[in-house]
């Protein structure tokens, strides 16, 4: 790759910070107007009714929540390009990061293009059988689009990318070691959130309810820290190659 095409440290830092902030905004709005993610523990009929009550605004916020992940995809690619010549696993990490973002975006978009139809059918149907069918359809789509794609695959691949990048930063001496350790801790806590997913099919599976919120929050903080450190690197500073 030509040097002129190489993403700059400033570009990478900006994308990481922008992506973390943009994701946090619609998430916060959803907690206020939809009681997310607590609402997901309610019966499907309650979720569908609340969603229908949210109207176009709620649909738009869910769309924003999905689309605001795009800057992070660009950041994954930019970091991969920047570090590609340094370590053999960087390309794998970049691939995992991009796939993680894509599956999470696809999973989230169900709230924009699928759930509104089911919610409208559930609320306006007079036939109990149709309402029951709407509930079953919602459960199936939520389990696959949300649990399987967005939360299981998406989060696992995100964790893998984070651990690999944190390891790369240590090996390259790019940032202080505590930043990588912070990434490891955030990833470990985030990984514990998988218990909540397995509990949907194995009710006795141990669950730490705070793992998802705490892990994802720490991960966003880690992105902000890494983004800030990239901004502080000199524009002309090259990435060292490990001996």
Automatic annotation (TrEMBL):
It comes from the Bacteria. InterPro entries: DUF4386. The chain crosses the membrane at residues 12-34, 54-77, 89-113, 152-170, 182-202, 208-226. Pfam families: DUF4386. Keywords: Membrane, Transmembrane, Transmembrane helix. This is DUF4386 domain-containing protein.
């Amino acid at each position: 790759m030509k040097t002129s095409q190489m993403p700059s440290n400033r570009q990478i830092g900006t994308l990481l910070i922008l992506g973390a902030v943009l994701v946090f905004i619609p998430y916060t709005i959803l907690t206020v107007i939809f009681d997310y993610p607590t609402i997901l523990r309610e019966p499907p009929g309650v979720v569908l009714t609340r969603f229908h009550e949210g109207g176009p605004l709620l649909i738009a916020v869910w769309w924003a929540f999905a689309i605001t992940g795009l800057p992070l995809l660009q950041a994954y690619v930019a970091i991969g390009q920047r570090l590609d010549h340094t370590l053999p696993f960087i390309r794998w990490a970049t691939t995992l990061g991009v796939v993680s973002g894509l599956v999470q975006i696809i999973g989230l978009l169900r709230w924009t293009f699928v759930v509104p139809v089911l919610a409208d059918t559930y609320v306006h149907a007079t036939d109990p059988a149709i309402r029951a069918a709407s509930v079953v359809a919602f459960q199936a789509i939520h389990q696959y689009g949300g649990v399987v794609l967005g939360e299981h695959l998406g989060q696992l691949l995100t964790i893998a990318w984070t651990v690999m990048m944190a390891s790369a930063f240590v090996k390259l001496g790019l940032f202080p070691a505590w930043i990588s350790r912070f990434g490891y801790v955030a990833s470990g806590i985030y990984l514990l959130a998988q218990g909540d997913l397995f509990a949907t099919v194995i009710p006795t599976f141990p669950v730490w309810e705070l793992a998802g919120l705490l892990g994802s929050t720490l991960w966003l903080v880690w992105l902000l820290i890494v983004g800030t450190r990239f901004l502080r690197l000199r524009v002309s500073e090259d990435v060292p190659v490990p001996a």
